[in-house]
Amino acid sequence: MKHVVSITLLFLCFSVSWGQTEKEIDSLKQLLKGNTNVEESVEINEQLFVAYLYTSPDSADRYRKNIRTIASKNNYTEGKYLYQSLSGRYQFAKSDIDSAFYHIEKASKIAEKLQNKSYLADCYKKIGVIYNIRRNDSLSKKYAQLALFNAKQTDDWRTLSSIYILLGNQHFELTEYPEALTYYLKLDSIYTSRNEMDKSLAAAYTNIGMIYSELRNSAAVPYIEKSIEIYENLGLEEGVNYGELALGTYYDLVQENEKAIEHLLNAEKYYESYGDFRILGSIYGRLGETYLEINDFTNAENYLLKASKIPERSTNQVSVVLDQTNLGDLYWHKKQYQKAIVHFKKALEFIEADGNEESMRMQLLNVYRGLYGAYKDSKDYKNALMALENQMELEAVVQESQNELEVEELNKKYQTDKQQQEIELLTSQSELAEQKSKNQRNLFLGGISILGLAFITLFFLFRNKQKTNQRLKELEAAKSRFFANISHEFRTPLTLISGPVAHQLSKKGLSVDDKTDLGLIQRNADRLLKLVNQILDLSKIEGGSRKLRVSKGNIELLLTHLIEPFQYRAQQAGIILNSQIDVSGKLWFDRDVVEKIVTNLLSNAVKYNQQQGQIEFKAVQLGQQLSITTVNQNNDLSEKELPLLFDRFYQTNTMNQGFGIGLSLVQELANLAKGTVRAYKPNEATVAFEVTLPVTKSAFSKGEIVAEQEILSSLKRENADMGIEPDTDDEYVEESSLPVLLVVDDNSEIRLFIKTLFKKEYNILEAENGEIGEKIALETIPDLIISDVMMPVKNGIELSNTLKTDERTSHIPIILLTAKSGEENELEGLKTGADAYMVKPFKEEKLRVVIDRLIATRTAIQEKFGNQPFFKAKNVELTSVDTELLNRIQIILDTELTNPEFNAQTFAEQVGLSRMHLHRKLKALTGLSTTEFIRSQRLKLAARLLEEGHSSIAEVAYATGFNQPAYFSTVFKQEFGHSPSDYAEMG
């Protein structure tokens, strides 16, 4: 199991310094003595600080404080900036990231007053580094870009170079290697043009080497060796040993284990003396893993145990998982199976605790492989089977390299099965023909010879005919089962193709050719999956397992909803799609049948329409029948060929493409729904398909009609508890008995369709474009928003981005609906902060599941806040906007909670929101109104005081902002189920 240590050298972004000899340091000290010039004194103290920072931190601290004294005494603003900036570096070197951030922020404010672009660039760069360490990628990128913007307005090429390092590292850590190389090579160009070198350049070379290491490219070695050469010339021993570690990493990845161990041991000697446990943990872990590769179990165990005991390593979840997995492998090889299982289980616990199994998919796969081996070898076959099943399921996602082989093997299996099936069919047909001939011969002979045996002969003939029909039915069923089984077999490899291809397409930096090739694979995989699903539908119909589920509904809205995405597809192909729906009232139909018939007819019309002409779609009610017709331009088909179009994969002599099984499925579905289908040519240049379906209740049997009670019960949803009445202080906020759903779509029919679906569960608001939707959202603060993407004035992407970055509306779940399918469009929507993205036409059941999940997530957030002793955002997943707002609320509560004059009005004023916005925000996050929230926080504070031994109920009441002890006792009992005095005794 190989893994990569990312050596990003972030400290090089934070400070770019040069080695100074003892002689130079002594010279600086001499210059400092007796120097009265403020600027020169500050500059010399800065140089001495830099010289001592990593060799003698206490000496560096002394010179840092000298700068503060000089700057304060002489009111020297630049000196004050320098003190804060160096303080940030000092705290960063001590690994006190929070203190470093505090000083850098102060430095940035002074830089803003000075309007010094170089200072600003340096501060923004350092803030970007800190956010990178905190794994806040969005803010890290934001400040890196701000730093770059300011640096380009100066001639400070060294700061610009360090910013390129930061930007390169950001992309490097996200495995966006082309972008990372771009920034590293920009930095290389700057130094080459100036004939300069320092450790920023060396750091860039090291990371370029690490990128090539990840790619197992031997070009890694010369880059790392160049970095080591620069570090040696600068006299920077730490950089040299970083290079040793990088070389050890490369040789480990290409499995040159002896060389890997040699370089890693060199690095180990230095870092053990230097005391950098973060790097030591990586070295120990990699040495342990490498020794394990060559079966040196003694050294492997020694280093792996040393790695797992380093506290700094425990903060890196991936490292912890790797250590535990490697220890499991070690003990498995040593046949200490129970110890191996313990370590594998620990690795599994850390992965589950991390909550992001996708990012640890390979590690998780290795854990399951190890568990399977350990359980199997220890004869625990039950757990071994469970581990193997988990392993196989995960391998279906990660084994992209085996997709082609698996599909080829499956195809061979299919061909073999198909050949065997054809042999069986031919044999059966031969047997049937022989049996039929024998029956006829027996009948003929019996009629001539013995007329009296005619009855007996006819009886046996009847029985033989029954057997023949039964055998034919069995053969037909076997054929259907065969197609169903082989279709199921196809789904797994198709998923193995589609998943990794979609993952590759989501990566940045792909070439145009790569995108074209991957897109071609994805489109054809999707087409195959569609064909497989159609085969399964046909198998269900032919096998009799697909039953009608007819109910009464608005078919006009359903058809409008189904047509919209095809209008978009037609527009993209340069085709005009005209639709006419003439249906009145509610009709009886099977929603799934109608949906599949319409989508297959329209898909066929768009696909085979010639010369980018027009497509006509018409749905008309004719008495008790509904006629659905599509007409598209096609002058290649003759009248004789039209009936053959409903045969599966029929191909004409003049067309290259076959017609698949879509039309065959349409015919089977129409027959199932007691309807008819026909193809005809209105004129020489067009072809039409007409499906006629009965739409009255009397046309269907009782077993085919879904009971009204069943429909209503499927629409029932769990509503939030609305039993708490608002306090008089919050009565100005209008509370509806139903949650509010805002539907934003420029198509009035689609808005009506969604409104029809959810009018019983939600109070529906409507907007015809994003601008109106934004205004309504800010005025009403709805509980949920469903928005189209493509709209005039302001589209859904812009609407989502605006609302998700506004603290008044950032908590509102947003579902985007669009006719634009594809990975790129979905990612564009989700990047705005939208909570879900659905492609039209969507299924009602799927939309309800998505809404239920979003509501459940918000309920879980409310429960987490309710279960915490005080109002903390700890362990609660929130957006950065909500987190910032809650932190501001917490500061206000810490100051004002005990103030009896503190109420909803003053609370809203201090937060900076209107009372209505604060009320809806708190209601969404905690389930409480503003007044209920304040009272709840005061009661929790009172409970803590009582637990700490404060026995005077009146004192506790006044101390927590209650004016009336009697009222305090009443609400306290309502909250905790005990009076304050009883609660104090229990405490």
Characterize the structure shown.
The model is unreliable at about 1-20, about 400-425 and about 710-735 (pLDDT under 50). This protein is of the alpha/beta class and about 1000 residues long. The two termini are about 55 Å apart. Helix 5 (about 75-95) packs antiparallel against helix 6 and helix 15 runs antiparallel to helix 16 (about 295-310). It is about 65% helix and about 5% strand. Strands 2-4-5-7-6 form a 5-stranded mixed β-sheet. Among the domains are: about 10-145, Serine Threonine Protein Phosphatase 5, Tetratricopeptide repeat; about 405-540; about 550-710, 2-Layer Sandwich (Heat Shock Protein 90), CATH 3.30.565.10; about 735-845, 3-Layer(aba) Sandwich (Rossmann fold), CATH 3.40.50.2300; about 880-985, Homeodomain-like (Arc Repressor Mutant, subunit A, Orthogonal Bundle). It contains 39 helices and 12 strands.
Summarize the structure.
With 987 residues, the chain is α/β, with parallel strands linked by helices. Among the domains are: 9-146, Serine Threonine Protein Phosphatase 5, Tetratricopeptide repeat, CATH 1.25.40; 403-542; 552-709, Heat Shock Protein 90 (2-Layer Sandwich), CATH 3.30.565.10; 734-844, 3-Layer(aba) Sandwich (Rossmann fold), CATH 3.40.50; 880-986, Arc Repressor Mutant, subunit A (Orthogonal Bundle), CATH 1.10.10. It contains 39 helices and twelve strands.
Notable characteristics:
987 residues, alpha/beta, Serine Threonine Protein Phosphatase 5, Tetratricopeptide repeat, Heat Shock Protein 90, five-stranded mixed β-sheet, five-stranded parallel β-sheet, 39 helices, 7% strand, disordered N terminus
